[in-house]
Q: What sequence folds into this?
């Protein structure tokens, strides 16, 4: 199966965007990936061997965590696995409505760090 | 490491924050990164899935990331960063931004939108080699000195 690697993890896959590994299930595919690129282990899995909470694995368009068999889900020829770290954030709830002027600490005003070349 | 982008893209990401005010906007930056800089060549606007608290939270659906990643592959680009807005809040990363930042080596661009108008835009590079040593470092946003001709194609 083909596994698509997100930008931050390509440093550990010889800069490859997509890696082809053997395996009949999602778990086998991920195991194959880590076997080929052992440095990925700590980035994908906790010390207990579970996927890190912010690491999403999608089988085609489906979140593996929500599939009935989860990582034991069988993979068919042509299926694609995507590793997608989550992206989220926002202002802190306690300060979100505080004046910009009073909280503008440690951050450059427009123009100071904006350069024209 | 600087963040390079065109005036057009810079304007687009700031305008997005004004359009969604008082809620946070968010999006994906596609481009190229080398040792010294990140160059943004395309923006992908994303929906904010945090409809329960969109004024102070954002989240991009993984499906949108997969779509952007696929579009990037077709165009020879990669995901090099993300942007979002802080309605009535500084363009400074928050504890929430930091806790939920996992794309090491990518740029996180934040625009403060005050009373519906984009004010300050800052970019922060997520440095480090793993979760335990990650850090946000301010990075300069570099715009071309002359306005490039807009080519709708």
A:
């Amino acid at each position: 199966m083909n596994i698509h690697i997100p930008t931050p993890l390509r440093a550990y896959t010889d800069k490859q965007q997509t890696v082809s590994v053997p395996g009949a299930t999602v778990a086998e595919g991920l195991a194959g990936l880590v076997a080929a690129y052992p440095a990925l282990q700590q980035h994908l899995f906790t010390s207990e061997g579970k996927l890190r909470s912010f690491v999403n694995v999608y089988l085609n368009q489906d979140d593996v965590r929500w599939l009935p068999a989860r990582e034991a889900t069988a993979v068919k020829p042509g299926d694609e696995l995507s590793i997608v770290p989550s992206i989220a954030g926002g202002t802190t709830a306690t300060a979100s409505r505080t004046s910009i002027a009073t909280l503008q600490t440690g951050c450059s005003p427009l123009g100071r760090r904006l350069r024209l070349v | 490491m600087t963040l390079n982008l065109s005036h057009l893209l810079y304007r687009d990401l700031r305008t997005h924050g004004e359009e969604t005010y008082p809620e946070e906007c968010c999006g994906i930056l596609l481009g190229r990164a080398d040792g010294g800089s990140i160059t943004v060549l395309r923006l992908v606007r994303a929906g904010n899935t945090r409809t329960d608290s969109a004024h102070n939270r954002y989240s991009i659906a993984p499906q949108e990331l997969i779509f952007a990643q696929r579009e990037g592959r077709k165009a020879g680009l990669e995901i090099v960063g993300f942007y979002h807005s802080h309605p009535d809040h500084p363009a400074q990363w928050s504890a929430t931004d930091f806790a939920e930042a996992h794309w090491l080596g990518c740029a996180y661009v934040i625009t403060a939108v005050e009373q519906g108008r984009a004010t300050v835009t800052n970019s922060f590079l997520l440095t480090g080699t793993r979760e335990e040593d990650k850090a946000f470092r301010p990075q300069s946003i570099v715009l071309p000195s002359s306005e490039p001709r807009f080519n709708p194609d």
User: Anything to note?
Assistant: Chain B touches chain A through 61 residues (CB under 8 Å). Chain B has one domain: 2-142.
